[in-house]
Design a protein that fits this description.
With 171 residues, the chain is of the alpha/beta class. It has three helices and ten strands, in the order H-E-H-E-E-E-E-E-E-H-E-E-E. The longest helix is centred in the N-terminal third of the chain and has 12 residues.
Length: 171
């Protein structure tokens, strides 16, 4: 809630929350309930919560829970759709990456994963992604965030045999 206050975002204006997984650093049920209750003071429309279909989500008031099947696309609004994409993160927290599409533009929100699993690669292989939000983690170590390497074990040296290079271009 502090982040919303600092960013000057009114919780009552939040209409949808999309969860990539339910680790405590991404999900706090008390905060979600606060947002939903605040929203209820200004709208009869509940707060929409989007999670993976098998997520063990707590009972909260003033919400509408949307359970997403992997690799299935859902309409969020008339112009926004979302697809749940499987990731390799800890299964007990119901992980998913999120492919969002609006007006023909696609954003892949791919956090807390070490690599792209085969099924997800096959699903995304021919997809034109306009924006990619990704971090690569390995255990407790973050390997690389754009422009910053936090662990020298993963630096490129003369001995490096293989490099995966991702190039993002505007077309």
């Amino acid at each position: 809630m502090d982040s919303l206050r600092i960013a000057n975002i009114d919780p009552a204006q939040i209409t949808h929350i999309f969860f990539t997984h339910l680790h405590s650093d991404h999900f706090n049920p008390d905060n979600v309930q606060t947002i939903a209750s605040t929203r209820a003071t200004v709208s009869t429309e509940p707060l929409h919560i989007w999670v993976r279909e098998d997520a063990d989500f707590p009972m909260l008031t003033n919400i509408k829970l949307h359970r997403m099947k992997l690799y299935q696309t859902y309409a969020v609004t008339e112009t926004l759709s979302i697809t749940s994409v499987e990731t390799n993160h800890t299964k007990e927290v119901y992980p998913q990456w999120l492919l969002l599409e609006q007006n023909g533009n696609k954003l892949l929100y791919a956090t807390d994963g070490s690599w792209i699993i085969n099924e997800t690669y096959a699903f995304l292989r021919d997809t034109k992604i306009n924006t990619l939000v990704i971090d690569a983690t390995c255990g407790e170590d973050i390997i690389w965030l754009i422009g910053h390497r936090s662990d020298n074990r993963f630096r490129v040296t003369e001995a490096t045999a293989r490099i995966l290079k991702l190039t993002i271009t505007n077309t």
